[in-house]
Structures are given as structure tokens and as C-alpha cells.
Amino acid sequence: MDSALIPKGVERCPLGRFLAFIAIVGAVLLWGVVAMFLIYIKGLNQTNMNNAYGFALWIWADLAVIALGGGAFFTGLLRYIFGKAELKNIINYAVLIGFVCYSSALLILAIDVGQPLRAWFIFWHANVHSMLTEVAFCLTCYFGVLTIEYIPLILENRQIERISFFRHLAHNMHGIMAVFAATGAFLSFFHQGSLGGVSGVLYGRPFGFRSGIGIWPWTFFLYTWSAAACGPCFTILVTRITEMATRKKLVKDEVIDLLAKIAGWMLVTYIAAKIVDTVYWAAVTAPAMGFTLMDFYTNNPGSAYGLWILIAEVGLCGVLPALMLIAPSVRRNARLLFLAVLLAVLGACLNRWVMILQMQAVPVLPFERWFTYFPSWQEIATTILPVAYGIILIAFSYRYLPIFPQEAELNPLPEGGR
Amino acid sequence: MKIDRRSFLAFVLGGAAGTALSPLPWKLTDDISIWTQNWPWTPVPPKGETTYVDSTCTLCPGGCGIRVRRVEDRVVKIEGRNDHPVNRGGICPLGAAGAQLLYSPWRVRQPLKKMDGRFVPVSWEQAIGEIAGVLRELREAGTPEAVAWIADTDRGTTAELCRRFLTVYGSPNFIRTPCAQDAWETALYLTQGQRATAGFDLERATFLLSLGSGLLEGWGTPPFVFRARGALKDNNGRFVQAEARLSKTAAKADQWLPILPGSEGTLAFGLIHVLLKEGRERKPFVAAHTAGLEELKRQALQEAFSPEAVAQATGLEAKAVVELARAFAAAERPLAVCGRGAGRVPGGLQETLAVHFLNALVGSVNVEGGVIAVPEPEYIRWPEPEMDAVASKGMQTPRVDGAGSERYPHARYLLNRLPEALLQGDRPAVRVLFVSGGNPFYSLAGGERTEKALARIPLIVSFSPFLDETAAAAHYILPAPTHLERWEDVPGAAGYPKPVVGLARPVVPPRFATMPTADVVLRLARRLGGPIRAAFPWESHEACLRQTLGPAWETLRRKGFAVEEGFKPQPFETASRKFEFANADLKRLAAFRPLPAPGDPGAFKLTLVPFDTLRLTAALGAPPFLVKALESEILLKNDIRVEIHPQTARDLGLADGADARITTPQGSARVKVYLTEGIRPGLVGMARGLGRGAHDRYLAGKGVSANRLLALVEDPSSGLEAGWGIRARLERA
Amino acid sequence: MDQPKNKRYGMVIDLDKCTGCGACMVACMAENNIPFRDDDTDKLLSVSWMHVYRLSNGKPFPQAEECFLPRPCQHCEGEHGHSPCVSVCPATATDYDMHTGIVSQIYTRCFGCRYCMAACPYHVRQFNWWDPVWPEGMERALNPDVSVRMRGVVEKCSFCYSRYQTALNRAYVEGRRELAEEEYQTACAQACPAGAIVFGDLNNPRHRVHRIVQPDLAHGGRPRNPKAFRLLERLGTHPKVYYLTGRDWVRRAGDNEVQKS
Ligand SMILES: Nc1nc2c(c(=O)[nH]1)N[C@H]1C(S)=C(S)[C@@H](COP(=O)(O)OP(=O)(O)OC[C@H]3O[C@@H](n4cnc5c(=O)[nH]c(N)nc54)[C@H](O)[C@@H]3O)O[C@H]1N2
Ligand SMILES: Nc1nc2c(c(=O)[nH]1)N[C@H]1C(S)=C(S)[C@@H](COP(=O)(O)OP(=O)(O)OC[C@H]3O[C@@H](n4cnc5c(=O)[nH]c(N)nc54)[C@H](O)[C@@H]3O)O[C@H]1N2
Ligand code: SF4
Ligand code: SF4
Ligand code: SF4
Ligand code: SF4
Ligand code: SF4
Ligand SMILES: [Mo]
User: Fold this and answer.
1) Is B38 within 8 Å of chain A by CB?
2) Residue B8 has what pLDDT?
3) pLDDT tier at C1 (50, 70, 90 boundaries)?
4) Ligand nearest to the CA of B222
5) How far apart, in Å, do the first and last CA atoms of chain B sit?
6) What burial class does residue B318 get, using C-beta atoms within 10 Å of its C-beta: 0-12 exposed, 13-18 middle, 19+ buried?
7) Any chain C CB within 8 A of the CB of B105?
8) Does C53 touch chain A (CB under 8 A)?
9) What confidence category does residue A141 fall into, taking pLDDT thresholds of 50, 70 and 90?
10) Which chain A residue has its CA at the smallest distance from C127's CA?
11) Which of A188-192, A359-363, B546-550, C94-98 has the lowest mean pLDDT?
């Protein structure tokens, strides 16, 4: 049964080993599920959030995975709209990673809200002024798009493919994938952007607030930009990790190199914009609200929110990986490439972290002090839950679906193989 | 029909699509969300007709007018009465939380009797019968004076009925719980010859000097005092607070004089010294209305009260003392007050006298903006009861607390001396103790020794509506209805400068099988028969009230209060008809001497000073809303935080929030520290009102009680409780 | 239809009169069915629509000074009613009422995303982390005019909106369309024993709030009274709660405009 499901021309580890691996990750998943039910039954008091930290680990995780899932829309855009044909060799995986990221994001949101059974009010009683409304609509639609993009992959499973209806369906869906890619890119532009708008429009929170164009603060554009830059880095990172885990080369170097090069230039332009934004914010936006830059950073040594965090985000995890990725020699060194994409990914995560958590930690009322927060085990478990779920989904998809078109070519089977 | 894989899949997919398009999932989603809006475990308060009932709050001696909002027969809100002269619409946090006392699940629902250490419900009949039996035995044994009664007030029909019961029974041992008014009443009597309580015309004073009084921490009637302080501000008056810590009162004063604790009396004498030395007393008043100034000069012009010496004693600068005295004398209507904190500890009589002298020197006695002698209400005029021989003999015995004895001739009640008296002899002097309204098991200082003393009493009867510390220690609890379920006449409002009587009424029917304390007294009297029964010709407390008030009853019932608007203070009733700075009685008092904090300063380097807060209560347990409103600077989880200066903290190696152990000669307790620049280095500030051994789960077991760490300190001039602090040690825990 | 002129209900709190007693907090709790828990000492987990802050001037003993600052919802007007919290709520569970200027909160619509909490710079909004539980019997004191909130939703001070409705209903029954100043008062203003809180219509020149602050309605309601200030004036939230003080340090502690310029 198992071997009948495995794609033709590739080799997979023994079923026992696969199941053992799934069992280990499944245990972690189960831990998260237990925490999730605890939260559903007992309420959000199971977290360490409080009235000053209404948004915490989860919202950060949400924003981070969505940024990193940006590889799907951006790779799709490059492949289908800009005609970067080589990228067809990684698009499947980019879509899969995107699907994992977005489904995780929705799952986390469903845990995060105080009244999950009413979460649909966001659609029913939608407030057009709210960035979260925009996020919810675009996110849901885009998740639908990702699902549509993922389905043909499932249909390409050896057994499913044998049913002619599904074969045809997959074929036709592939045919019109450009339409979905375009839709996805459009939706992504808005939901990545509106996520940036989430803190950017908070004019009661000078740390997060940004001026902008029309209803969109600069963070709207910066978020989309950073997702387009760092999402592909995450795709590369996960591909590399998958290659390490499977001890196989799965995607050809030229493909990775192309994606890395594009990501590098995106990162260069993004980080330049980010620096301009930071300077303008520190010099104009914040002072207009009565705040100086140093009001936003604690000078207690060892504090979580010292100036170091800005330097780390913009310099170490921004400028540095950008420069590394645009340098062909660095890009082509496997270790340095790994380091560069890792830094870029951390940079995106750090950016989402400060924009959500530091934004709330900064005292706004002059007589208040810095607020502190450390997540509870339930929050950590439910945040790891989607990671475990993602690993399992990727593992199954890799095992049973033809995710990597170049795998067979790169890993010819020994004589006597299937 | 054979179902192949294809048709099966089509069926599943078609079914899913069909279900999604049907109204079912949408209806379910909607239903589920409606369910979250009506969770059966979230209460829905029933609607009903809203009515308002005016009454009087009896939760403290304030007697504020309250307006109670009811929905059907439920009390949902208590507000201040806008038309009430004392509080004029304002209300304190305790009064506002009053409904939580009515509906507290920790109320005593029927008479309880302690058997084998546990309370069991008994009938009223049985409880009253058994207690009457013990009373009869004591009387038969010829020792009626072994019965004592502690009450939180000695005014109003309930208190008078209790006292009358004791009298005809044969015991002089009716004891009112102590407070600052004890010292003031004595001071008024000694200097003005008037049996009156002190009222303070705070609203019209233009310079208010408070010697440690927590004017914004429960002193007097909080809504009245607060409003008066606002008026002072509006009138551009001046308010000076002399106190060792930056209390809320000090924080709101125009000037805070951080004097050494316990030096209030010395400061008062120092101010008198400057006034007299510089001839700044108000000469027309002093000449026309006072006597004995020479004696006061002899006393106050001593070197010990010179600005330099006073500076030394108070920690102020000599210049500041002189300036304060001059500013006080120069003000149009200056007024000095004392009674530390909320005024729950009477303090030394000489100290109160010094403050009163200060007022007299500037002419602020019985005048607008000054101290006013408010006569005790006189509407209770019952015929003298007939006493039998046992009663007469009993009434001849000295009071167990020594009040009125040769040593303390002017004291009326000395609850603080009761514990020591109880420890004397093989058999405790008190065999039966009734407690109505007070909570001595919690509020009496003295730690274990006090506890041991009270535990010697073989029969304790509590009338508390709640399971408080005294009730928990009692042998019988005969629960009274709460302030919202009973009739009560409420004479006087603490510190209010006019005679006023309020009426508390049953706003709702009693929730439980409770009985007003006065009715218990009537029934006990009936049981005991003879002259005791004859002294109580009333059917019930309500009947007694109607009859006692006479025509005033209807007015009170309609309006809710009666105030003597055009009240003019009575002329002085001393032999000289003047305010006497000196006379024979005053001369006999022990001389003024600042009382040190008990304990060896060598072993205990710090001084613990308790403070009061309106977000806690003194005797009555704080209802949940008050505990909720309590600052995290005072209570953190279950730990009380004590205030210390950062310098003190550095010396002790303690950081803000650190766990520590405080030890006094009386005991030791775990605390957390709170660092503040608002306290003098070397002091430890601790809020009163926590560390409850009984009450509800929102209050019980939180923090420690300052009373347990404090010692009883007897004022040598009056016998009154005068402790203001105790030496202490603080260590890292 | 003759629409009555819009109201702009607001509050002035005299910080020099406020004694920090907490009667306003308790009155609000009783009026608005605020739940309580065994341990309410962590104020960041506790619900209290009114919170009294304790401010200090930061100077050493004996120059230390303290001031108490009661903080209800500021009922920010923002620009055209886009208060920081209202514009962000995705489910329209909170709203700016143009007729009264009151920022409402609809508990049964709120689904607990807490975006509004993140948006409010005054830490006014509080979340129901727990199911509210009243000990047996005490639920009898609940006010039927104010709904009890369920776990998982955000709540905040409503300027005692139910009192407004009650007053308005009464006026309508009596054939009136306008409320007199004293007819609609909040529970905290009514309870305050120090008379520190004054409540009324900022648009109405006869109301005390208007006379005290002399709001410049063309400029977001900036106070013209030099003793009056608003918390974080510079953010442009245009609160309708004003504070009075004669002490400079208190003003600096509450108003970042004074501090930085
Ligand atoms: N060490 C120390 N001793 C003190 C004080 C202090 O602060 N410290 N304060 C002193 C002062 S100033 C005062 S006024 C008193 C305060 O004590 P009181 O004035 O006596 O206190 P209250 O708060 O009036 O009443 C509190 C007790 O009476 C019960 N109670 C409440 N209502 C009723 C009722 O209707 N009927 C009956 N029978 N009982 C009722 C409650 O259960 C509670 O235990 O204590 C005095 N003693
Ligand atoms: N939240 C909260 N509020 C409280 C309390 C609490 O524990 N918590 N405690 C309550 C208690 S127990 C008290 S004692 C009060 C504090 O108030 P009280 O205990 O009443 O304090 P006093 O010392 O009586 O008030 C100050 C002065 O008022 C005068 N005075 C007192 N009684 C009378 C009187 O009957 N008539 C006249 N004319 N003058 C009088 C005396 O001269 C006295 O010096 O605060 C009450 N308020
Ligand atoms: S001050 Fe006293 S009488 Fe007045 S409301 Fe408060 S508790 Fe009641
Ligand atoms: S009730 Fe009045 S005085 Fe008391 S804390 Fe509130 S505003 Fe201040
Ligand atoms: S204070 Fe906060 S909750 Fe109130 S209106 Fe302003 S932003 Fe909204
Ligand atoms: S928590 Fe409720 S009120 Fe606040 S933004 Fe979310 S849905 Fe709106
Ligand atoms: S206005 Fe009403 S709801 Fe707001 S704090 Fe005051 S009492 Fe509470
Ligand atoms: Mo008292």
C-alpha cells in the first residue's frame, strides 16, 4: 500500500522509519493539541497575556509565518506572471510551504481570539476601517487560493492520478494556475500590507504608528516588501533543511541561485526603504507625537528592548544578508547562502516581533513603566503545534506527492529500482 | 447497487457541497454564537421595577444619608443622598459596596452555638434560653458584674437598651470600642465642662493643621471631611499635614511636615510656646472666654517646648516650627485637629488637650470654622429603671476596665485595659461577654497576650451578622440583620459640627433568620423576669423606637434625618463659665510626656507605624469590591507590602518587592517590601485591615494584621489606648 | 425629523481635589456589574473600568509628592469619531456615537481579538480572562440595566451609558427631548465624596464641564483653561476627559506635550 503511493522514480525511507519520525513529531503535535483544548475549555487565562499585552506570542507567530509564507505568492508571481520558468522546479514546494504557513496562521488565530465561536463576526459585522478586517478577508481568500494551488499536487499522487476525473481536474487546474497566481499576488499584496497596517495605523501607539499614503501607513508597503524578500529566503531555507533531512539534492543549484538573487535584490530595496522609514519615524513621526527615539528603547543593560534590537533587525538581519545575497560568490557558497537566508528570515521575524510586542511594551502614558511578558507553556505549546503540523504535512507531501520535479533526475535510482 | 470508488467520492463531495449550500451549517454557526452570548453559567440579572429608598448608612460612625436602588426586592446600588447635610451626595467606598455585605455568603444565617469547637444551628428560643440560664446563675451567685458588653457605639436606642440591660442586671461593664473621640470627649469635658462630642467645622476653616490625622483615610465621616477639604481649596485656604509618612492626606496637603512619629504632642506644645512667647494668641477671645492662661504659659514656655527643642524632637527645623505657629495664628479661621490615622486609636489625652489649647488660643472653639462641642442627643428619655439589690450591688463594683476609677476618673470606657484585667486571678473577671458591633478579637492590639486573655472568658456571645474574628471565637452567634434590613436610629456623624440624627430602615426584608440586637435584649429581659423585665416595657425594638422618638418618628421616617441647622454651641459649663486652660481636674492628670514606641531600640532598629486606608476596614471585614480596589502597593497576591524608604532598604539589602520578615516585641510575620520616597528612613509603614482570620475568601488569609504586631500602650494621663507604633526589625526572608 | 443637537459628553477631574479614596472605582463596580476574583492584585489581569493611578514626582524624601489620577475611558473623539480603538475593531463591536460622543462596547458582538486593547494608549480596555463568578447570593446585587459580560470579551467604561438611557427614557415619557445636566450623571461623578469629578455636555455652554475647561471645539476640544490638560494631548486622540491641576509636575506627568516641547 505504502509503496504504491510513493511517486515513481524516487526513493523513500522505509515505512517504519517514516512512521517513527511521524510519531516523534506527532507527540509534539499532541502536546500542542492538549494545550489548545486547555485554552478552549478554560479560556485565555491559560496564557500569560494581560491587559497591557493583549497581543503576544501568537500574534507575533501569526505575522511571522505569514511573512515567511510570502515565498508562495512571490515565487508564483515570478513563475507565472514574470515568466521565470526555472522556478517551476521550486514552485510546488513554495506553494506547500505557503499552505502550511497560512493554515497555521488561521489555526493560531482561531486559538487566539477570546470567542472563537464568534470569529465569523469579523465577516458578518465587518468594519471597513479596520486593518484586521482587510487581513481577515484577504487572508481567507488567499488561503482558498493556496488550497486551490495545493490541490493539483495532491491529485498528482500516483493512485489518485489513476482516476481520470482527477487527472483531468489536475491538468486543467495547472492550465489556469496563472490566474490563481495573479489573484494570489494581488490578495497577498493587500493582506501582507494590511498586516503591516495593523500596528502602523495605531496612532495611540507612537512606536508602531507610521504616516503613509491614503489609508495605508508605510508599514503596509514595508510588510509586503519584506514578505516578498524574506518569503523566498524561507523557501530556500526550508528546501535546504529538507535536503539535509533527506540527505538528497532536491532542487538544482541554478534554481536556488536565481531565487536567492531575486530575494537578495528585494532585500536590498526593502532594507533601504526600511532605513528611510526608520529615520523618518525617529526624526519626524514620533517627535510630532511627543516622543523621542530613546523613549522607545530601554537603557537598562540586558533588557529585551534595548537599542540593540533595532541594530540587530536592520543591520545584522537586514543589510548583511542583503549584501550577501546579491554577491554571487557568497550566494553560491552553500554554507554562506544558508547563513544569509537564515539571517533574512530572522530579520523578518524580528521585525514582526518589535512591531507587535515592543509596540505594547513601550510605556505611552508618561507615568507608566515598561511592561514585561513571558509566554506560558500553553502558549509555547500551541505555537509549536503548527510547526509540528507543518513538518508532518511536508513529510507526507514529500513522501507521497511529486513535489520536487528535479528529484528523480538529481537522484537516479540504482539498478533494479522502481 | 454497487458503489464503486467513483460514485462514493461523488456522493461524499456532493453531500459536502449540498450541506454547505443548505441553511444547516449557517443556522448551526449562528446558534453556537448565540449560545456564547448566553452561557448558562453567566448570570442574567432579572429585570423588574426600580425603586429608591432613602436610609442611613451605619457601617461606620459617619451616618451618611444613602439612597438605595432596588429592583423588585433586590438591592442593586447604594448611592449618597444629595440632600443629606453630612455627605451631600458623596459616599465612601465602603458605603458604596454595602450591598455586598447584605448578600455576602459569609453571613450568619441563624443562631449558632459552638459545640466541640464547631458551630451548629440552634433555634432563637434555645439560644436565648440557654444564655438567659447562664445569666440567671451569675445573678444568683451574686456576681452580675461578671457580665460585660462591648459595643461600637454608646448612642442610639440599641446601645442604650444594651446598657440599660446591663444596668438593671447589675453590671457597670458596658464598653464602647475606642476611638479618637474618647480623648476629645474627655478634653471637652475637662476644659469646657461639657459632656459633648467634638465636631469640626472643617468647611469653614481657612487654615487646617492636622497633627497626624488621616483626614483622607477615614478620619471622622469621610464624605464630610473630603468635601470640607475641597471647600478649603476653593476658599484658597491652607492645609498643613504633620505626619511621618506621605499618606494620602499628606499628599493632598499644601504642605507636608514629615515629623518624627509620636512627636505630634510635642509639636502642638511647641506651637503654643511660640504663640505665647510672641504674644500671638487671639487676645480678645482669650481675655473674654478663657481662664488659666498663666498656668498654660508656665507649662508651655518650658525649655522643652522651645522651637529648638521641638525641632530636635520632631525632626523639623526650628524655623519651620516658628513659621508654622505664626501662619496658624495669622489665619482668619485656623483649626488644629488630631487623632492619628482614621482616629481608631484615641491617643494620649495631654496631646489632644494641647491641640485643643492651640485652638482655644486662636479663638477657634465653639465658633464658625472651629472645634464645636456637639451635645449628646437627648431624645432618649426613659424612666429610671428600678433596680433590685443584686443589681444595685453589682453596679457599685468598680468597672473591670478601670474607667472612672480613682486613677482614671474621666475615662468612660477603656477596652484596651480589658485584656490585662482578664488575666488577673484564677477566675477571669468577666464570665459572660456580649459583643455587638465591635470586633475586638481582630482589632485589639497586644498579640498573643490579648488572645490568651480573651480566651479566658467562658461565654462569649457575638451579635455579628457576619462570621468575623470575634464571631468565630464566640460560643454563640446571635446574628443581627445588616444595615439594610433593620431599623436603627443613628445619632451624630463623627466629626460633623451639628447635631444630626439619621434613621436607618429595612430597605429589604431580612434575608435570614436574624434578629435585631435590641430585640434579643428585650427577649433576654423577658426571660430573666422581675425588675429586669419591668425595665423594658416595649414589645419590640421598632415599638421602642416609635415610642422613644415620639412625634419625631414620623418626621424621621419621612425625611430620613433631622439636623439642627441653626445650631449654636452651648456656653461653657465650667465653674468659671470659661474655657479653662487649667483647673483642679487638669492638674491631677499625669504630665505630658511623649510616649515612645514600645521595644528596645537596640534590638529593634526600626519603627513600625500602622496606617489606615479607606480601601480597607477597621473592624468590619472589607467586602470584595474594596479588596479589589486595594492598590498593589499594599497587597500583592496574598502578601501585604510594607513601605520602607530606599535608604532603609539599602541598609537591609532589600530590593523592591523582596520577601522579608518583620519582627516586633509582639510577634513576627512575613511581608513583602515596597520602596517609596514617601516615608521617613527608619520607619516601616503597614496598612491596617488585613490579616483576617475569618470573613470571606476574598479577604481572609491575605497579608497580616498590624494589630497583632502592635502592643497596647496605656496613656498615663487617661488610661486610653495611645500606641502609635512599635519598635521593629526587618530581615530578608 | 428634528434631530436634537449633538452632545459631547465629557468629564473634568480635579486632581487637586481627588484624594485617591477609590469610591469612584467601587461605585462603578457596583453600577456596572464588574466581576471580582479571589486574587485581584495583578491589576493587569483585573477588570475595573475606573482605575486610580498613583503618580509621584520622583523626588527624594521629604520633597516627594504624590498625586492620584482616576482614569475612566477617555472617550476619545480622534478625527471625526475615529477614536484609536473604534476604527480598529474588525467586528464593529465598539462604536463612536455621534449623538453623545460616547465610545460604546457591544459585548455580545466582540469576539475577543483584543486589537482595540493594543490600540488604546490609556490601557482603558480590559479583557475578561476568566468567566465572571459571583459567590452564591451575591449575584442578587447585579444591576439589570447593565449586561453581565462573558469570558473572552473586552470591556471598558461606558460613561454609564445605561444611566443615559434611563434618563432619556424618563425624559421622553415626560415629553421632553433634552436632558438637564443633573439628570444624567455617571456613577463615579455622583459617588465622589471629594466632588472631584464633574460630568456633562462639553457642547453645552451652560454645563459645568464646558465652563470649567472652555474647550476649543474647532481644535479637537483643546482646553482653554490653563489649569486643564488631557492625557497625551499630542497624540491627537482628542479625549473628552480633562484633568485639572495647579501642580506643574502633575501636568508634566500626564501630558507629553508639556514634557517634550
Ligand atoms: N486596635 C484597634 N482597635 C480599634 C480600632 C482600631 O483601628 N484598632 N478602631 C476603633 C474604632 S475607631 C472603632 S469605631 C471600632 C471599630 O469597630 P466598630 O465601629 O465596632 O466596627 P463596625 O465596623 O461598626 O462593626 C464591625 C463588626 O460589627 C459587626 N456588625 C456589622 N454590622 C452589625 C450589626 O448590624 N449588628 C451587629 N450586632 N454586628 C454588626 C461586623 O461583623 C463587624 O465584625 O474599633 C475600635 N477599636
Ligand atoms: N473604608 C473604610 N471606611 C471607614 C472605616 C474603615 O475601616 N474602612 N472605618 C470607619 C471607622 S471604624 C471609623 S472609626 C471612621 C473614622 O472615624 P472615627 O472613628 O469616627 O474617628 P473619630 O476619631 O471619631 O473622628 C474624628 C473626630 O470626630 C469626633 N467625633 C467622633 N465621634 C463623634 C461624635 O459622635 N460626635 C461628634 N460631634 N464628634 C465626634 C471626635 O472628636 C474625633 O476626634 O472611619 C470609618 N470609615
Ligand atoms: S462614611 Fe461611613 S456612614 Fe458614610 S457611607 Fe461610608 S461607611 Fe457609610
Ligand atoms: S472618588 Fe473622587 S476622590 Fe475618591 S478616588 Fe475617585 S475621584 Fe478621587
Ligand atoms: S481611552 Fe482607549 S478605549 Fe477609550 S476611547 Fe480612547 S482609545 Fe478607546
Ligand atoms: S476585542 Fe472585541 S471590541 Fe476589541 S477589536 Fe476585537 S472584536 Fe472589537
Ligand atoms: S463613567 Fe461610569 S462607567 Fe465610566 S468609570 Fe465612571 S462610573 Fe464607571
Ligand atoms: Mo471607628
Assistant:
1) no
2) 65
3) very low
4) 3
5) 82
6) middle
7) yes
8) yes
9) confident
10) A51
11) A188-192
Q: What is the CATH number of the domain that holds A45?
A: 1.20.1630.10
Instruction: Determine phi and psi for C233, rounding to 5 degrees.
Output: -50, -40
Calculate how far, in angstroms, residue A404's C-alpha sits from the geometric centre of ligand 2.
84
Specify if A373 maps to a domain.
Answer: yes
The verdict on B419 and B541 lying in the same domain is yes
In tens, the pLDDT along B433-470 reads: 999 988 999 999 998 899 999 999 999 999 999 999 99
What is the percentage of chain C residues whose pLDDT exceeds 90? 92
Expressed as residue numbers, the domain containing A343 is 2-409
Q: What is the number of structural domains in chain A?
A: 1
Q: Which has the closest alpha carbon to B689: B614, B607, B598? A: B614
Q: Find the residue in A nearest to B5 (Cα).
A: A163
Residue B271 and residue B419 share a domain: no
How many whole angstroms separate alpha carbon B81 and alpha carbon C193? 11
Question: What's the number of domains chain C is made of?
Answer: 1
Residue A101 lies in a domain: yes
B208 and B170 housed in the same domain: no
Residue B209 and residue B319 in one domain: yes
Tens-place pLDDT, residues A228-281: 999 999 999 999 999 999 888 999 898 999 999 999 999 999 999 999 999 999
In this structure, the answer to whether residues B351 and B398 fall within a common structural domain is: no
B399 lies in the same domain as B544: yes
Beta carbons of B91 and C40 less than 8 Å apart = no
**ipTM for this model:** 0.89
Model confidence pLDDT, tens digit, residues B357-375: 999 999 999 999 999 999 9
- Whether B612 and B583 share a structural domain: no
**Domain boundaries, position C78:** 9-254
Q: Label the pairing between strands B432-436 and B459-462.
A: parallel
Q: Is residue A247 situated within a structural domain? A: yes
pLDDT higher than 60, residue B3 = no
The domain containing residue B698 runs over which residues?
606-732
Nearest residue of A to residue B39, measured between CA atoms: A115
| Nearest CA-CA distance, residue A270 and chain C, Å | 26
A414 assigned to some structural domain: no
* Residue where one domain finishes, among candidates B558, B587, B616: B587
Q: What is the pTM of this model?
A: 0.91
Residue to mutate among A50, A115, A117, with most B CBs inside 10 A, is: A117
Q: In which residue are the cell numbers 517551476 written?
A: A88
Per the listing, cell 534590537 goes with A309
Assess whether B208 and B226 both reside in one domain: yes
C-alpha cell at B31: 446558534
d(C-alpha A417, C-alpha C160), whole Å: 78
Dihedral class, residue C35 (left if φ above 0, else alpha if ψ from -120 to 50, else beta): beta
Rounded to whole angstroms, how far apart are CA atoms A91 and A104? 20
